[in-house]
């Protein structure tokens, strides 16, 4: 798995999971959204349940389908969910105390976790339960908060909710300095007057009528600014908007069984289709 330089996993904040909203991304639209994010993050649409390495980015080991990190807490959430299926007796168990300590402290140390990647890789390749735990954890930690945010905004298009999910994965889903909710707040605050358009979807933003696609373009501008000039210097991420604007410019707002054309990481058009593989 090649993790590209613009992947910036921000610190995971333990979420409050009550009151989830059923989002618009499901079935084919969810599959396409996840595959698009996979292309941006990894360069392809494969599902890397077995991926694990220390990127030297201050977050310990990064592993699995959403880059769960030992130094940010989300990896420990995944391991605890897996323990519930194994009764707490599996190959991760001897590392529990160390994983819990690093999750609490935010340490990037890998001392005491020398076998972590070999265990993660083995279970990621062979254990269907561990694979499903990763899917459930990704959806719980990153997809559902993005869906909640989309519902609160009144977003109607798959492309908009897909961008919030992508941002949730890359920036973190909450209100830290460079997180998803912070970017949404800054986007909303930028609209001081009505911003009408022809997308067919109008949002109520601070009492102003704002076309959804106009809102999304502004959101991407603000997201890029945070990646280029993050409030937390550790979260330097680079330019992202150009590739993500392509599908918007093609007016591919909603996704079903139809293929979606995007620009890959080399700036070349590529087609993303609905996958039958569970995502």
Q: Quickly count the helices.
A: 9
Q: Give the helix proportion (percent range).
A: 40-55%
**Binned strand content:** 5-15%
Q: Count of DSSP E strands?
A: 7
Sequence of secondary-structure elements: HEEEHHHHHHEEHHEE
The general outline is globular
Rg on CA atoms, Å? 19 Å
Low-confidence stretches: 1-22
Mean pLDDT: 88
What does this structure look like?
45% of the residues lie in helices and 9% in strands. With 279 residues, it is mainly α. The strands form three sheets. A three-stranded antiparallel β-sheet has the order 1-2-3, covered by helices on one side. The chain has a two-stranded antiparallel sheet with strand order 4-5. A two-stranded antiparallel sheet has the order 6-7. Helix 1 (28-42) packs across helix 6 (158-171) and helix 7 packs across helix 8. It is globular.
Brief rundown of the structure:
This protein has 279 residues and is mainly alpha-helical. Helices cover 45% and strands 9% of the residues. The protein is built from nine helices and seven strands.
Topology summary:
Elements: H1 28-42, E1 52-54, E2 61-63, E3 68-69, H2 74-86, H3 96-105, H4 116-126, H5 128-153, H6 158-171, H7 180-189, E4 202-205, E5 208-211, H8 212-228, H9 241-249, E6 260-263, E7 269-272
Antiparallel strand pairs: 1-2, 2-3, 4-5, 6-7
Helix pairs in contact: 1-6, 2-3, 2-5, 5-6, 7-8, 8-9
